[in-house]
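Here comes an entry:

___
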Amino acid sequence: MPLPLGAVVGGYRILRVLGSGGMGSVYLGQHPSLPRQDAVKVLNEQLSTDREFRARFEREGRLAAGLDHPNIVSVYNRGAEDGRLWIAMQYVPGTDAARESPQGSTTMHPLRALHIISEVGKGLDYAHYRRLLHRDVKPANFLLSRAGGEAGERVLLADFGVAKSTEDDQDLTATGKFVATVAYASPEQLLGQPLDHRSDIYSLGCSFYRLLTGRNPYPSAVPAVVLMGHVHEPPPRVTSIRHDIAPEFDNVLAKALAKSPYDRYNSCQEFVRDAEAALLGRMQYRAPEGGPLPQGGPFPVSPPAGTGNPPYLFARHSEESTGADHRRTGPDPEVRDRPGNSRTWRRMLIAFAVPIVVALAVVVGVVLVSSAGSKDAGALAAVRSQHPEFSGKVVAAFNYDPGRVHGGPPLTAILAGSPQAEFLSDIGFRYADAYRPDGDEESPRTLPIASFRVAEPVDVVIVLRSDGQSGWGGLPEGLAKAPARLVVTGDEPSVGAFREWSADSAADLIDGVVPKISETLT
């Protein structure tokens, strides 16, 4: 239950709501004694009453409060009020990177995205140097502000309240809770394996991808599909969506999003330096405040259990190092223990083969996925793997029912966010921005047959016909002359599965529609 305006928490008088999520709500609060306003995060009752979480909240709150960096939101105080935990933080007026890169948008300039990632990277490197992980790096936690008359955009990393010390072996995943956002979580985090600073670097890479493309690396409304993408599928290519980006950038992002942490960058500085070189052809990243990293990098990382090897130390990074592969020194851990290899994946598939419930307590809430959902997730992932020609292409889908067999208008457009549009996104397409709901508009949208024209740009137009025909003949001119590849089907099971979405629709469409789409595109 949200707090009423005027309520007092830890001495702070609540002025208004700034935001809310699965872990709790953030309020603007008036400081009890100073003439300033702070952000006060009040955690929900479920977390506040969890004894293990409360203990870690106290333990890690002290660590987060010790961070002092211009790119990290300062933590001022913490406590409990009426049984609910709260934490007071620096208030940053402005917006955040998630709002500046709305889903489906590709309008963020690469230089601005690079600036945001570079500034966040400086804060992360500073925290990693002090053996503290963030564990929930995502655009919504990148606060952007021009307050105070500064010439440029100021970027601060927020929400170190879920940070974790690298020396703390206690983790919420031990009790079945998962503190992160699945869309940006590393494979080892999703699999409940030990984490180090390279997990945050993976999440930073996912965030960079989102800023540039307007979509998550493995977009789906089904958490199990996202999980399998992070663990098993190759890193997505930005250039499949952004043709103004140099191809070299795909290689940089692929390293940041490597399945095994041993194959990733060892610092955000390295990542940003290579990203800048790919985007601009020069390097301007400055070393994080606080001096260069000591010999051995941010901190030593233990090898996977069972290798028998000693802890690894990481090579020191310098501004003069421009082409070397800055990975750990020492013997390579046995390949069989890496999270992205085939044996680990086979163990993952075995786990998914039996009826399971994937419980993911993410920032937006707890999501339960049934075994049936996991089965669909595997099938959707298989389609994406088997049909790379779908990747990144813009698609729009339409129902054509001139005889009103289904009782509705003769021509309708499927809108983004609907199960049908999500299915197309799950198999690799990007749904057309022109067909996003207007406010509370429900899918499908009624269209005028005589004047309708397909909004550009669209690469693929899918038409489901309810008049028993499967060709172009008799289609409205706006569809027949669409400036895109046209996929038309009148197959009754496919049309029914698409129009009336059910638990069996995805499987029916994979069998009936996916082959037709592939045939048209190849």
Observations:
- The two ends are 53 Å apart (CA to CA).
